Amino acid sequence: MRFLIKGAGDLASGIAYECLRAGHQILMTELAVPLAVRRSVSFSRAVYEGQAQVEQATGVLATDSAMAMDIIKAGKIAVMVDEMASVRSQFQPDVLVDAIMAKKNTGTRRTDAAVVIGIGPGFVAGKDCHYVVETKRGPSLGRVIRNGGALPNTGIPGEVGGYTVERLLRAEAAGTMEPLVEIGDLVTKGQMVARTGGAPVYAQLTGVVRGMLQAGVPVAKGLKIGDIDARADKKYCNTISDKARRIGQGVLACL
Fold first, then answer.
1. pLDDT score of 118
2. Most CB contacts within 10 A, which of 81, 109, 144, 247?
3. Sign of CA dihedral 130, 140, 98, 77
4. Element containing residue 117 per DSSP (H, E)
C-alpha cells in the first residue's frame, strides 16, 4: 500500500520504519526547516543532509513526485519538503498518516485517502479521520481509537530514566540555535549545553544528550530544543524509541 506520512520527526519516522518493514511504500513530507530534536532517528534529517539512515532504513530527499517514486521503487523512503502535503494529489496514497504532532488538526480530512489516521491528540476518529492512534505513554500507548480522540496533551513529557520535565531542554530566548554539545555527549547537571538567541541553556540533569536541534535554526522562546537521557546509554541515541515502535504498530493495526 502507498503511505503518505505528514511529518518526519522521530515518532513519524518510527511509523515509517514499521510500515516499510511490513512491505509498504512510504512518502514523507516535511517543513523546509525541520525541528526534530531526535535528529539521529528522524528521516527529516534528509531535508538538509540529502539522506538519512535510521537503523536499517534509508530516507532520501526527493525534489518532485517522479523522483520520490524512483526512491520508493528502490526500497527506500522518500522525503519531500511539502508543508501542505500537496503531493497527495499526484501520489494518491492508500493511507494518509498525520504525524506532525501539532496537537491539533492543521488540515487533514477523512477524504484525503481510503484510510486516514491521526496520531495523538487533536483528531477525532469518525469526523476528520478514520482512526486515531494513542501517543501517551502507559497501557494505552499505540491503541487504535475508532470513535473519538486520544487522551489530551498534559504538557508533561513521559518519564524516561526516572525524569520527565527535567530531561527537556528549552530555548531561553528567541533567536538562533547554537548547540554547544553533540547528540551522544555525556553532560552534567548545570552544564551549559546550548545558546538560543545568545541566552545560555543549562542541563537540568546528568546524562547523555539524546536529542538536539541542528545549529542555525530559528527558535522561539520555550521551544523544545534538546533531550537528555539519565540512563546515559548512547545506544538510545541511534535507535527508534519503544514509543515510536508501538505507535507504528498501532498504525499497522488500523489496516
1. 98
2. 247
3. negative
4. strand 115-119
Instruction: Locate the DSSP E strands across 120-181.
Output: 131-133, 144-145, 168-170, 175-179
pLDDT attached to residue 188: 97
Q: What is the pLDDT, as a whole number, of residue 56?
A: 97
For the segment 65-102, what is each residue's pLDDT rounded down to a tens digit?
999 999 999 999 999 999 999 999 999 999 999 999 99
C-alpha cell at 80: 519531500
Yes or no: say if 130 and 116 are a contact pair by the CB < 8 Å rule: yes
124-157 pLDDT, tens per residue? 999 999 999 999 999 999 999 999 999 988 777 7
- Enumerate residues 6+ apart whose C-beta is below 8 A from 237: 40, 41, 183, 184, 208, 209, 210, 229
- CA distances (Å), origin 15, targets 122, 127, 162, 177, 249: 18, 22, 25, 28, 7
